[in-house]
Amino acid sequence: MTLTQAEKAAVVTIWAKVATQADAIGAESLERLFSSYPQTKTYFPHFDLSQGSAQLRGHGSKVMNAVGEAVKHVDDIRGALAKLSELHAYVLRVDPVNFKLLSHCILCSVAARYPSDFTPEVHAAWDKFLSSVSSVLTEKYR
Amino acid sequence: MVLSSADKSNVKGVFAKIGGHAEEYGAETLERMFATYPQTKTYFPHFDLGKGSAQVKGHGKKVAAALVEAANHVDDIAGALSKLSDLHAQKLRVDPVNFKLLGQCFLAVVASHNPALLTPEVHASLDKFLCAVGTVLTAKYR
């Protein structure tokens, strides 16, 4: 699955807006993830997962920074996220199904904040993009 | 997810061992899949899915032939299955989750007929291979 030029452009465009609220969107996405899919909390026994927790906000920022990196290097997501890919393969080992869940939550947060920008085409491009990111992060598992 | 040289050689070994039984295995794989995952029958409203059905046997042969082709071109599965990939994207549109189910059933068939063959390492290689085939066949969906 490769992103077309149009899709890459759509991702970059919406990111310009998302980036202005990246931290908030990151924290909100994680909040959505933990409330809709409580099983995902299993990876964070060491966190305070209550609303507004500093750890949640910090981690949300990390996640969105990585997404931002991927946007910046949308032509070489694999290269841009190589270290993160290894981290997930050898240390974190987050079950691949969870990437879909987090991607979905990020999508929801973005859609909620930018309803008029989130056209079907932008939705599809963003979903493909997050799918690519997820693939890269799980490709070294085995 | 990339197949290592060990994976490729394991896969070739499995298919060498299966040899002429591939077609039979294909049919049995479908039978198991329809029995265990009845939702997969949705793609075959035009088939007689009863035991020993000639259509299932015929289709099993096709599926097996594709897997054999992929194994024979394990260095370029995308190239080898390019037409099949187009077919699935433009016409068949089998939901991606079903490729995993078919893969599992194929693995079960191989294991049940060749218990000593499927060591943990060979099992992992074959599973990776089947995942790679699934990925290629869904790569052009969007």
Write a structural description.
- The complex is a heterodimer of chains A (142) and B (142).
- With 142 residues, chain A is mainly alpha-helical.
- Chain A has one domain (5-138): Globins (Globin-like), CATH 1.10.490.
- Helix content of chain A is 70%, strand content 0%.
- Chain A contains seven helices and no strands.
- The longest helix of chain A has 19 residues, at 54-72.
- Chain B has helices at residues 5-18, 22-36, 54-72, 77-80, 82-92, 97-113, 120-138.
Question: What's the SSE blueprint?
Answer:
The complex is a heterodimer of chains A (142) and B (142).
Chain A: H1 5-18, H2 22-36, H3 54-72, H4 77-80, H5 82-92, H6 97-113, H7 120-138
Helix pairs in contact in A: 1-7, 2-3, 2-6, 6-7
Chain B: H1 5-18, H2 22-36, H3 54-72, H4 77-80, H5 82-92, H6 97-113, H7 120-138
Helix pairs in contact in B: 1-7, 2-3, 2-6, 6-7
InterPro entries (chain B): Globin, Globin-like_sf, Globin/Proto, Hemoglobin_a-typ, Hemoglobin_oxygen_transport, Hemoglobin_pi
Protein name (chain B): Hemoglobin subunit alpha-A
Domain Globin (chain B): 2-142
